[in-house]
Write a structure and sequence with these properties.
The protein is an alpha/beta fold and about 300 residues long. The protein is built from 13 helices and 7 strands. It folds into 2 domains: about 180 residues, Vaccinia Virus protein VP39 (Rossmann fold, 3-Layer(aba) Sandwich), CATH 3.40.50; about 90 residues, Orthogonal Bundle (DNA polymerase, domain 1). The protein has a 7-stranded mixed beta sheet, with helices on both faces.
Amino acid sequence: MNAAPHIPVLLAEVLDALAIQAGEIHVDGTFGAGGYSRALLERGAKVYAFDRDPNAVAAAPKLEGLTVIERRFSEMEEALAEAEALPVDGVTLDIGVSSMQFDQAERGFSLQADGPLDMRMGREGQTAAEWLNEADEAEIADVIYRYGEERRSRRIARAIVAARPLSRTLELAAVVRKSVGYIAGKDKDPAVQVFQAIRIHLNRELDELQGGLEAAERVLAPGGRLAVVTFHSLEDRIVKQFLRERGGQAPAGSRHMPATKTRAPSFAHVGKPVRPGAAEIAANPRARSATLRFATRTEAQAWGEAA
């Protein structure tokens, strides 16, 4: 196998969490450039990889034991059922935009080079330009505040509306920076948060993450392992809450509230969050904000299914 063109984040730690045995079936829910899939194959697993990006699927290598499917990872249960590959022994999710997508200026994700305001992970839905040029100011401000955690969202949204129509990435970045008086080298770049917010909104990334976690819960065999790598607090919060609830670690309700029916934990051995060390961050700056969370599937029924 050829080396992967991009470095998978926390790869050694993910592989430790998955504890792969030869002959197992594993899911790589976010294929991207294929780094995790290659590592899974090298350890003897059969891999079903998912990616909603048709470019990633078209570029996927033909490797023995690898099946690449152009679908969202939240749809893994249906796709695996069609492939007669249920249940599976492991699910890996590397959330967010792939390095490959960031490196392609024409995709509109990056601030490093000018490109069209697209930001779609797949072919469907509005482009960033279409949304920015059609949405009202209040909606734009709400998205920037909610998904970019940017307190100056109203000021930025007002500037975006005044500058319309917008069509290029560096054009949008300049509008955002000017609206808040950004000083390069001194301030945190507000355009990074705005681009993140628009991308998450357009691709419904947080809904997709929740759906992917629930799908993983349904497809994993008892003893199967789940490993999820996130890159910002909004993503990590969802994974943390999901594993706390499903792992039976959620705080008990108030004694003043009516008793509710408890569910048997669907995950056990919920590990402590793992973050990259200094050496990995130096070698791969993308790893800087990464967090790995992992757990093992129990024999209990999936929570989304009828009790």
